[in-house]
Design the sequence.
């Protein structure tokens, strides 16, 4: 069955036309919970809202530690299961009732629980009449008009509505008609639309990445300020502390690209960039020349990108870039031209787009895939002291290659949501020139510190450095940033 993108929908209408005007607009916290990027987390394959992940997202948005809540009170005189999710759901319901004591809650917990319950029920009522989304409505169910009730009646209606939302957690054996449901929505283009970065002629785009090719990746989803799927997989500018097992040395490495771009068409953009790679090496080996292994490479260049789709089947980002590289440590100078297609997505297969997207597999594991191909030509004007370029002094090479990146994460598990395991393999076959075929395998465990922009990671790389072609086998601790 074709994978579907979903949006939350409310089953049922029971409010008058004047209620919408009186219903508060969704708060920033609630909008973050029900953001488009969380839809795959909140909605089951059967398009039913999953209250467990909903609680995790609520806890994150309202800075409420679900694990620190005390033992749960009874709901409607019935004890709830002894799980973190059920305990949190019971407290959210109970804080709307004046006859339930707080039983050890802190003031911060009380305020957060009450705010969650209020904002969530207001949001459900708002959804019932909102025309801003293509919601479907099933006859025979209703949502209370909270604005027409006052005092204890309103609190009771809120508690009853919350009990319905979290019924699968509070009373797993009971069968309760869902209040919220998810319905299919036509799948958008798998590749990010270039207008994410602004309409033609509207200002400049500033970007920070690791690899220069990733400047071709738009930052946000269409019409939002939320990081897009391709941006999540883009490389980050980084500073790393490394242990090079190949050469028996430790080093500090910097890898960053800063670019400024301008949208020149609905599917086209042009970037000017500066890429800088530095490795400062230290070793205790007697007679070893540390400076011989250092890298201080500066690469100013330009990049053009064009987002394309062919017959509704093949999508991707076509790019062309040209830049010289000045390695001040090795006194080497090269020039490169590269053509590439990144974020390749093939649609029309049985499970939806192949690569270029995120997908769920067994056990709630999310797998993200990026694939690309490229061809690169270069001229070595000066090899300097670089042993890896010595055979190419005043010579050229031409190569073709590809890259594949796979990422695994557990977005439904609150404690593990910030972690991701990423593996990438890059290979280039030299079709002309006296250079060994470079290839590199990278594996990293990353922890997301701030949204998709700042991360901490532990990684292992083995193979050729694609900027200098030096052979490396390194373990590294990395702090990364992208924008």
Sequence:
């Amino acid at each position: 069955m074709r994978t579907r993108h979903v949006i939350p929908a409310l089953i049922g209408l029971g409010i008058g036309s004047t209620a919408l005007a009186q219903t508060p607009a969704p708060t920033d916290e609630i909008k973050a919970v029900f953001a488009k990027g969380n839809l795959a987390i909140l909605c089951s394959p059967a398009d039913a809202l999953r209250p467990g992940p909903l609680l995790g997202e609520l806890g994150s948005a309202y800075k409420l530690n679900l694990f620190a809540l005390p033992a749960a009170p009874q709901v409607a005189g019935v004890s709830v299961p002894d799980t973190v999710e059920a305990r949190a759901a019971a407290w959210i319901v109970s804080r709307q009732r004046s006859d339930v004591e707080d039983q050890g809650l802190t003031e911060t917990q009380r305020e957060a629980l009450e705010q969650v319950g209020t904002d969530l029920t207001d949001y459900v009522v708002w959804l019932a009449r909102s025309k801003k989304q293509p919601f479907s409505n099933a006859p025979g169910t209703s949502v209370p008009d909270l604005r027409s009730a006052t005092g204890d009646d309103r609190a009771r209606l809120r508690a009853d509505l919350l009990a319905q939302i979290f019924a699968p957690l509070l009373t797993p054996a009971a069968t309760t008609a869902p209040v919220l449901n998810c319905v299919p929505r036509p799948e958008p283009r798998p590749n990010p639309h270039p207008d994410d970065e602004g309409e033609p002629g509207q200002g400049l785009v500033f970007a920070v990445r690791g690899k220069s090719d990733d400047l071709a990746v738009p930052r946000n989803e269409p019409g939002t300020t939320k990081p897009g799927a391709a941006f999540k997989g883009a490389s980050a500018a980084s500073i790393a502390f490394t242990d090079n097992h190949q050469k028996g040395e430790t080093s500090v490495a910097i890898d960053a690209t800063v670019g400024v771009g301008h949208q020149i068409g609905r599917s086209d953009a042009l970037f000017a960039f500066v890429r800088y790679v530095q490795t400062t090496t230290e070793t205790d080996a007697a007679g070893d020349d540390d400076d011989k292994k250092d890298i201080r490479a500066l690469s100013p260049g330009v990049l053009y990108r064009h987002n394309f789709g062919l017959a509704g089947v093949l999508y991707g980002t076509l790019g062309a870039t040209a830049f010289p590289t000045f390695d001040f440590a090795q006194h080497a100078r090269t020039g490169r031209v590269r053509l590439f297609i990144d974020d390749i997505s093939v649609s029309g297969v049985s499970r939806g787009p192949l690569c270029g997207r995120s997908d769920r597999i067994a056990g709630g594991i999310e797998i993200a895939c990026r694939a690309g191909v490229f061809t690169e030509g270069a001229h070595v004007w000066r090899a300097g002291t670089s042993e890896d370029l010595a055979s190419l002094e005043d010579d050229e090479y031409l190569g073709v290659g590809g890259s594949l990146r796979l990422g695994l994460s557990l977005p439904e598990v609150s404690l593990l949501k910030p972690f991701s395991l990423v593996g990438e393999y890059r290979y280039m076959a030299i079709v002309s020139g006296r250079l060994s075929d470079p290839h590199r395998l990278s594996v990293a465990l990353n922890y997301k510190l701030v949204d998709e922009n700042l991360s901490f990671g532990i990684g292992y790389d083995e193979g050729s450095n694609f900027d200098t072609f030096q052979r490396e086998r390194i373990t590294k601790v990395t702090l990364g940033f992208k924008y």
